[in-house]
Amino acid sequence: MTFLPQPCEPCDPPGYAVLALPPEIDFCNAEGLLPLIMTAVDHRSDDLRFLVLDLTSTRFMDSQGVRLLDQVRRRLPGRARLRVVAAPQGVPSRVLELSGLRRDVPVYDSLTEALRPRSGTTGGPGGGAGSGSAA
Question: Is the pLDDT of residue 10 over 70?
Fold first, then answer.
């Protein structure tokens, strides 16, 4: 099954791009997702402040998903920052916690939280990541 991250440009707040990711992220599709995500980023690079990757529909994610998120984070242009949405009790949230990536990427419990303006850009104190995040 081919999956294309779906941007919601008309409904994204200014400066934000939101992409919903597939139900599974593993060795079969993670490598192919990177160029799709980066194409969406390139399309919005002139005004992009936050890329929000929505993992709420993702039921399974392995280390390749962690690698994908880290690669996206490192390739974002200029001031753009990555935010991730993951259900607090879901597999992706736990994988991000165990891998340590939550220290570098703020993880929010809901899309509403991830789209709220924050004074900080990280999930630490003042950054406002969801209650399930590890600061």
Answer: no
Instruction: Return the bridge partners of 51, or none.
Output: 17, 82
State the pLDDT at residue 133. 43
The answer to whether the beta carbons of residues 20 and 52 sit under 8 Å apart is: no
What would the 3-class secondary structure string for the chain be?
Answer: CCCCCEECHHHCCCCEEEEECCCEECCCCHHHHHHHHHHHHHHCCCCCCEEEEECCCCCEECHHHHHHHHHHHHHCCCCCEEEEECCCCCHHHHHHHHHCHHHCCCEECCHHHHCCCCCCCCCCCCCCCCCCCCC
Sequence-separated (6 or more) residues with CB below 8 Å from residue 101: 66, 69, 70
For residue 1, what pLDDT is reported? 39
User: What percentage of the chain carries pLDDT values higher than 70?
Assistant: 79
Over residues 95-112, the pLDDT tens digits come to 999 999 999 999 999 999
